[in-house]
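Standup notes
- DV: blocked on the single-chain target, sequence here:
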Amino acid sequence: MTQSAAHTPPFLIEAARSRSGDDPIFALNAEAQRRARTGEAVVNATLGALMDDQGKLAVMKSVFDALAAVDPQRAAGYAPIVGERGFLDAVVGDLFGAGELARHSVAAATPGGTGALHHAIVNFLEPGQALLAPEYYWGPYKTLADHTRRKVETFRMFDGARRFDSAAFERALEGQVRSQGRALVLLNTPCNNPTGYSLDAAEWSEVTRIVRAAARRAPVALLVDHAYAKFGGPGAERWVEHAAQIVGEALLLVAWTASKSFTQYGARVGALVAVHPDETERKRIDNALAFSCRGTWSNCNHAGQLAIGKLLSDATLRARADAEREALRKLLDERVAAFNTAAHAARLDYPRYEGGFFVSVFAPRPEAAAAHMRDAGVFVVPIPGALRIALCSTPARDVPRLVQALAAGLAAAN
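- DV (later): unblocked, structure below
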């Protein structure tokens, strides 16, 4: 005899029962696509994937040629737990060249940047502790923290001049050092998702000063979420020079992914890189990351690691991939320039935007503004305090209409 449903004890644990399986961004994208299929002229600025001007996913042929050239016997076999050595060395080289940082690095393969974030959270924070991020951050940071029994604490990202609020960051980091005895800072720069903001040299100098001071009192790890860095504005790659200044006092981590830089969202190829000058500490970190790999996904995509590793390490193939990416970067830069021109003319309030997949316009009532825009056939993502616009999927020709709808939506919501 079976128990009635009303009297059956719940199978899910308490923490899992109220979780939502819906992603609001994918839900908005689905609605936009549904309306477009009916013949409506829709502007869909929701999904964070680079699309060409015909609305098709932008892809790099060099990547598919590299995948096709992988030896099937190798690709079909298990990858090493921590990752294919050639791939990991190539990722470190992509970030740091052959200099001192590369010599002081260890890395583990992960399923995209998300896997890298997971490994950082579970290895550098105790359960119940909180990572530190600016108030505008990629939503899955919280999902990852919740799922691993950690939390997210934030600090005000922008001051009154719409620059990075280093004073707020310093207060928050000092507070975590006092309360937790350690800290893990996540900075998505260059090209923050969702704001598009990239720290400049002066802001980076403040970040390194603050992190170094905190690291003299407690273990501090600074993770650079590198997801969109290849699409940053001029000088964006110089973040390495600034971040290098914390090595030896704080731990430098980098979440690297092929998803955006090689337009390979589905391949799930990424890595967490850790930089520390002490060989014994590097070995401990290497062991911990390998243990986490085995305890989660075990092995990552072998074919993807072999192909991306080859693209990064072979000079001829790398030059070809770089040229294809540069063409896509120019496509995105046209959209960035079009947005800045139209948005400044419309007097929209948003932070400095020099490159990247997204930009955010500050909005007192984002849900109401986004709803008004949807009525006009323009889709953006409302987030706390702002509207996130995915210019990566918005052709430059649609930017004037997008900005007009933004201005009208903000006015209607006030």
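- Follow-up: The chain is about 45% helix and 15% strand.
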